[in-house]
Amino acid sequence: MAKQTKKQKALAGTVDREKLYGVDEAIALAKKNATAKFDETIEVALNLGVDPRHADQMVRGVVTLPKGTGKTVRVGVFAKGAKADEAREAGADVVGAEDLLEIVQGGKIEFDRCIATPDMMGLVGRLGKVLGPKGLMPNPKLGTVTMNVAEAVKAAKGGQVEYRVEKAGIIHSGIGKASFPAEDLRANFDALVDAVVKAKPSGAKGKYLRKAAVSSSMGPGVKIDVAEVSAA
Q1: Domain end: 135, 158, 181, which one?
Q2: What pTM value is reported for the model?
């Protein structure tokens, strides 16, 4: 484990590792501990009672954060003709078909979200090895394989985030920037938790939402009382 700096030790000292904080108190503490020279992201970690190795326990989806993410999201769209024009008008950063395939195959990925029209999926499927590991593969369940490209582009640009449970049963997601008002971060936190709870898979047994914590990019984690979250 990397040795803590004086600053990290000082910040860690502001958080009681044994205490379970209320959501508002935890968010306020995470904001206070965001002392880096850049606007840190406020991140949430949710520990779920699932084993994602089983298909019926996979938790994945998208949620629109009501107060936005504070991040500039670059959107790439695989489309042709009128649909390509629609994507550009909606604000997509990169639009193309075979030409975009060649750019991506060459290792140049200039987007954070990828959308495709259904007729393009034969083409996009050839990029599975490139886009898959980066979590960029368009997926109908996530609304990123669609004929309504304008709506999908606007959603990706306007605060929509994708969440996916990792091997250890944990979901990590940003809910905004440290510069956001605390009430905006709380609104985004509630939207994320609500979406994850509603996405509870049929195969999940026992307690579903086990642990929760919030932190800034460089700050220590603040444990949240999940009883308060579950009650809400």
Answers
A1: 158
A2: 0.82
